[in-house]
Design a protein that fits this description.
Order of helices and strands: EEEEEEEE
CATH topology: Thrombin, subunit H
Distance between the termini: 37 Å
Strand order of the largest sheet: 2-3-4-7-6-5
Number of helices: 0
Strand content: over 45%
Radius of gyration: 13 Å
CATH architecture: Beta Barrel
Length: about 100
């Protein structure tokens, strides 16, 4: 497991805001979907289709509610480690998240 920079260590006192957005996630063994519950600067809590394990590496794609130039859908991509598991998993983000354009159906 990679070490997490000390300035980004998860604490329960981090400010988190309730946000409900569609999320897709993938690990080395599975792909799933859910909804975000709350988000902070360096963490995101989301529902999962199957329980994830604490310490598990996960990448998430969150459908962002704002359009680029008013027309192009965006997604927020982040990766990190699960720090809380259960019906809602909490992911500590290890690197700066990035926005990417999202395909439309």
């Amino acid at each position: 497991m990679q070490s997490i920079r000390k300035d980004h260590i998860h604490t329960r006192s981090d400010r988190k805001l309730p946000v409900e957005l569609a999320v897709r996630y993938w690990t080395a063994r599975e792909v799933g979907a859910g909804r975000t519950v709350e988000m902070g600067a360096w963490n995101v809590a989301f529902t999962t289709s199957t329980p994830l394990a604490v310490g598990q590496k996960v990448q998430v794609s969150i459908d962002w509610p704002v359009l680029l130039n008013g027309t192009t859908p965006l997604q927020l991509i982040a990766s990190g480690f699960v720090v809380r598991a259960g019906a809602v998993a909490e992911l500590h983000i290890e690197q700066r998240p990035e926005f990417r354009t999202r395909r439309t159906q």
